[in-house]
Amino acid sequence: MTDICYAPISAGCHETIGRDVPSHGPVADITGDLGPLPGTPMALKFFPRDSTNLFSFLREYNLSLSFCTHPYLTKALGIAFSTPSHYVFAQQASLFGDLYNVIVPEVGVEEDCVQRVVSQLCGALTHLHALGFVHRDVKPENIFLVDAACRWVKLGDFGMAKATGTKVPGVWYSSAYCTPEAEISKESEDSRHNTASKPDGGNGLDSKIKRVWVSVEASTDCWALGILTYAMLTGSLPWTQTASDDRSYIKYKEWFDQQKDQEGQDDELDLWGEGKDKGIVMSLDEDKQNRSRRKSHPVAPQFACFTPLASSLFLSLLHPQPRLRGRPDDVLGYLGGDWLQVKEKIQLEEEEKKKMRGREVISNEKEREGRGEG
Question: Is pLDDT above 70 for 1?
């Protein structure tokens, strides 16, 4: 493990504690003289000592310090210390909050902004995966903004990151970000559900199966990237939970299966297309008509607002089989084209204008108050 500047100190600097995301401790943005250069902005990440063992703290710190050299990954700054109540390390500051605060519920963000963010995340994940790590917690709260327009974002919080191939307890949780392959762990003792008391006085844990061990794979991040892209474009999630009994997920799965069946039939058609026999040509004409009919299969309702290009992207990233799931570098081929249908774009632009007008009103009110005109 890399040598670390680690020592107990008494925290005496002024700090503003940010939102406490469940997977990590609170982050304080400060401007102090501890960084590489005097006055360098930095963020202090706090880990409560009563719920964090020292090894876990040092593991995350070392990963962020030694491997997060990509411009779209949050890097530790080589400063770690402890207080009586916390372990702390310093990392690069992102002074404009996180992506969660940018996404307007039921609206999303502008498509150009979405594609900028996705492009940067693809670079960050490709770099991380090439080093043999899987982030395992890609979500809006862990994507930090270096500027307000999302022209530069950084993926952070590596508390869940593991080396590819590591065996970990399988965990299922009620969220669209949970992968379909995690459902085998739904009734395991580690999964976060079914713990409420039963009518007979027992609890949900009584019926749980033993721990399920699974391998850490990069496909987990690819699924999360697909869900995140959907969330940014729509301001919502495609389904409540990735489970075989979730109606919205069932609709998606039916659409997915129809599309894959169609692709398989079209591939067979292409193989026959090289024949020169007239009888084969006749059968090709019939197959083209059949193909046209197959393409009329309805899109899953929650994906109807997307163009065929975006639909193909989602079908790739949200492939139910992890080994066939699209990779982050595959996504780059989908950038630059339209992802939203025209009607949805117009609606999004109107919502963005309303949001901007609201911000201007608040800004003007604050300015008048500052001049004492209120």
Answer: no
